[in-house]
Amino acid sequence: MSQKDEMSRKDYKKSSKKGTTQQPKKWFKRIILTFITLFLMVLVAGGALFAYYASNAPEMTEEDLMGTYSSELLDKDGNVFYTLGAETREYAEADEYPDVMLDAMTAIEDQRFFDHIGIDPIGIGRAAIGYITNRGQIVGGGSTITQQLVKLSVFSTTREDQTLQRKAQEAWLAIQVERQLSKEQIITLYMNKIHMAGNVYGISTAAEEYYGKQVSELEIHEAALFAGMAQAPNRYSPYVNPEVAKDRRDVVINVMRDAGHITSDEAEAAKALPIEEGLVELSSDDNNALVTDAYVQLVIDEVREKTEIDPATAGLTIETNIDMEAQQRVFDVLNSDEYVDYINEDVQAAVTLVEAESGKLRAIGGGRNTEVLRGQNRATQQKSTGSTIKPLTTYGPAIEHLQYSTYQQIEDEEYSYPDGTPLRNYDGQHRGQISLREALVDSRNIPTAKVFNEDLETSQVEEFVTNLGVDIEPMSNEGVLVPQNAINGVMTPLQMAASYASFANGGNYTEPYTVSKVTTQDGQEIDLSPETNQAMSDFTAYMITDMLKNVVANNNNTLGISNLSHAGKTGTTNFTEERLTELGYPSDAVPDSWFVGYSSTYSLSVWTGYDNNNDGYLSFDDGSRLLPRHIYREVMQYVSEGVDNSDWQMPSSVKEVTVEDGTDPAKLPGPNTPDSARITELFVSGTEPTEASLSYGEELDAPSGLSADYDEESDELSVTWDDYTLENEDEDVTYNLSIGGETTTLSDTEYSVTEPPEGNLTITLSVSAYDTTGPEASTNITIPAREEDDDEEPEDDDEKPEDDEEEPEEEPEEEPEEEPEEEPEEEPEEEPEEEPEEEPEEEPEDDNNGQNNQNNEDEDEDEESDQNGNSGNGTPPANDDDDDDE
After folding, report:
1. 653 close to 684: Cβ distance less than 8 angstroms
2. Of 753, 755, 759, 722, whose CA–CA distance to 738 is shortest?
3. What are the C-alpha distances in Å from 708 to residues 712, 741, 768?
4. DSSP bridge partners of 719
């Protein structure tokens, strides 16, 4: 190869390599340019869209930023019962707010507040991404304090209205506010406007209400509490949820430290203070407000949660579900001794009344002797349920998923939980085999736990209670139900009333709610009614109700209400033996006592107990354990007047069947089952028993194959029949045979009799078993008369003279013994007189009387023998000995 050729090849490779390097660079530039172009297009389009949205933003005035509009709360009949607004509000000037309050608020709400122009670009980006990834819905915040002020002042939209348009308009108005007002003015307006729980608005007002001091006097722990309450004031209220409030306060303190507003020592000192430090008792309000206070609390929370509107500032018309007459009665029952005798002023109670069909909350009682607004609402606090949870975690799921009948048999016996912990019934006794109904009605712990832990799957229970709106987290182990949940759990009285309402409403569940509709100032109507869902089958709801009606019937003296069909369940929790001893309480002392009951119209839950178990107990001795029943009866009787109180109608999915008590599995009564052993229970259609019980015997039929045969030659009657077979092969059978009225009991299938009675004989046969006798089978047979033989009659006549002639021959044998003593010499003289043949027949009347009598007796014996089947010749029959035996 020439050098020239080699150089050409090198040049080619070089030129090829150069071309390869330049190619990727061109493509990279193109990609960069494409992205830049797309970004610019998106930016331009976004800017155009932002401009369009901004141009349609609502107008905002200074009055909007500073002013508030009260909301009216309407009862179920459309009457205003409460005005929620700025009655409790004190405005503070910017210089009145201490630096510690400003530091706390900006640290937790908007750390770049003093630097941005009203919007936070990072927050907007996050909101845009959320809009795309969540199908047009804004998820997550990013709002600055300025934006929040705009939101509180101008916008009143539902969560469904959290669109990109709304966010863009909010941002545009926030920028306008920043242009018109200083940072100090903006944050002052915000802190004067925010809700601080209950009917308290503005931090200056909160300082006076909570700590009894001027806002300028606030300390680190106090300022941190208020800053932390801004996003969820009722949840973080130190009066309602002190533990949650402390956790939130400490978070704010940590953020303040991290932001450099306070030192670590100051942070630790502030966190060391209890949440109650410095708090004063909330001021009392008028009695009318106290009557509805617990209900109004729920209205505020519900409107804020579902619409993100502050009802105290937005000028809303709120249509609630409150029944003012029922609410007043609940308040009066709880706060006076006119209806119920309370043992002291410290015992507490909570009441919830829910309309069963709709889920509307009609009345609620948050406690007794409440003197301040927005105090504890015990109706929404978690309480230990005791046995009131049994229909929810055990009996309902057993019927729903296992299709247990109300008769399902369970063994009440010694039992321990899977971890070995022994379980006892309330009476310490075991009843052996009992029905599902008896186990629930009498609240037997052991059968309940056995069904929960041995028959049901945990997933089945969780599905059932979740469908009823029950939060299982508080009573579970890391979200998983535990064996003890069979007989105890944690629920609020509000949840309990709503869950039982599903039993009353054919298995349909509606989340309880206080507000039906909200109308904004601009006329926008927002429907807040939740959907109704099928939580369980109608057969489950009906069968649970049928059993729980027995609870009411068995406690008629404390729960009976005239002309009302209702059902319910009691429940108590227990102290441990060690705790009873430690506190010095009696053996029947309990910390909580419940009754949850319902009619076809209302569901009503009642809890009683103490806020602190160290403060007291409930017992039978003073009647306090029965308080829930008395409260329930007073309220339920009142609200049931003038409403439909009809009983529940059995659905087609349920069958009412009478079974024999004690059979397992269930069997129909047999023909001989006594009434005392018959019980009527409910079964899911298609699972009812079809087999009859034989415990008391089966139905006996007349025996078959009965026949009779007479053998004239042997003069014997033979009777035979078919063998009778019982379904229960272990039971013995006997036969009752009657021939001509003479009855014989035997176990064979044949019988014979010699010399049966003459004529038409009726033969009957019946079977006896299980201490009873069945119907008879019968047949007839004719036994011919036994006639004497005509050929033998003349022989008898001919032989008579021979008998006569033989008689004298026999007499000499007797007379030699007799005549020697009387007239031995006269005997020869009498012999010639015997020659005339006729005279011996005439003389027996005189001298031969004895002889003739002897002949007559012989003849009688012959006749008797004939009648017994002899030939008449005087020879004894061959079976005389058998006749004699008979």
Report:
1. yes
2. 753
3. 13, 15, 21
4. 708, 751
CA torsion angle 230 233 237 242 (round to 10): -80
Q: How far apart are CA 608 and CA 351, in angstroms?
A: 9
Q: Is the peptide bond before 665 cis (omega within 30 degrees of 0)?
A: yes
For residue 674, pLDDT over 70 is answered with yes
Using CA atoms, how far apart are residues 733 and 723, in angstroms rounded to an integer?
A: 10
Look up residue 698 and give its DSSP letter.
P
Average pLDDT over residues 725-748: 91
763-795 burial code (b ≥16 CB/10 A, e <16): bbbbbbbbeeebeebeeebebeeeeeeeeeeee
CA geometry: angle at 437 spanning 431 and 441, to 5°?
80
The full 3-state SS of 127-139, as one line of letters, equals HHHHHHHCCCCCC
pLDDT confidence of residue 179 = 87
CA-CA distance, 550 to 732, in Å (whole number)? 42
Give residues with Cβ within 8 angstroms of 621, minimum separation 6.
586, 588
Task: Count Cβ atoms below 10 Å from residue 702 Cβ, excluding itself.
Answer: 15
CA distances from 504 to 327, 393, 499, 508, 562 (A): 21, 17, 9, 9, 19
Residue 9 token pair: 């090849």
Map out the domains of the chain as residue ranges.
Answer: 62-71+88-280, 382-490, 654-696, 707-783
Whole-number average pLDDT of the chain: 83
Give 640-648 contacts, CB < 8 A, sequence gap 24+. Answer: 640/561, 640/564, 640/599, 640/601, 640/602, 643/601, 644/600, 644/601, 645/563, 645/564, 645/565, 645/599, 645/600, 645/601, 646/565, 646/600, 647/565, 647/600, 648/504, 648/542, 648/545, 648/546, 648/565, 648/600
Q: Tell me the C-alpha distance between 696 and 672, whole Å.
A: 5
Q: Which two tokens stand for residue 79?
A: 């009457």
Catalytically active residues, by annotation:
109, 387
**DSSP state at residue 832:** G
> In this structure, what are the phi and psi dihedrals at residue 164, rounded to the nearest 5 degrees?
-65, -35
Residue range 451-464, pLDDT digits in tens: 999 999 999 999 99
Task: Extract the runs of DSSP E, i.e. beta strands, from 125-213.
Answer: 200-201
For the domain spanning 707-783, the CATH number is 2.60.40.10
Q: Which pairs with CB-CB distance under 8 Å and at least 24 residues apart come from 744-747? A: none
Say which CATH class 62-71+88-280 falls into: mainly alpha
Q: What average pLDDT score do residues 68-88 get?
A: 83
What angle (nearest 5°) sits at the alpha carbon of residue 226, between those of residues 223 and 227?
85
Largest CA distance in the chain: 203
Say how many Å lie between the first and final Cα of the chain, rounded.
150
Interior CA angle at 136 toward 135 and 141, to 5°? 110
Q: What is the chain's percent helix, strand, coil content, to nearest 5?
A: 45, 15, 40
Read off the pTM. 0.67
CA angle 96, 100, 102 (to 5 degrees): 70
Helix (H) or strand (E) holding 42: helix 3-55
Distance (Å, rounded) from C-alpha 177 to C-alpha 197?
A: 27
What distance in Å separates the CA atoms of residue 173 and residue 185, rounded to the nearest whole number? 16
Pairing of β 654-660 and β 678-684: antiparallel
Average pLDDT over residues 767-795: 79
Residues 6+ apart with CB under 8 A from 452: 393, 394, 461, 483, 485, 486
- Backbone angle region of 815, left / alpha / beta, with phi > 0 → left and psi within -120 to 50 → alpha: alpha
Residue 806 makes CB contacts below 8 A (sequence gap 6+) with none
Angle, helices 242-258 vs 220-229, to 10°: value is 110
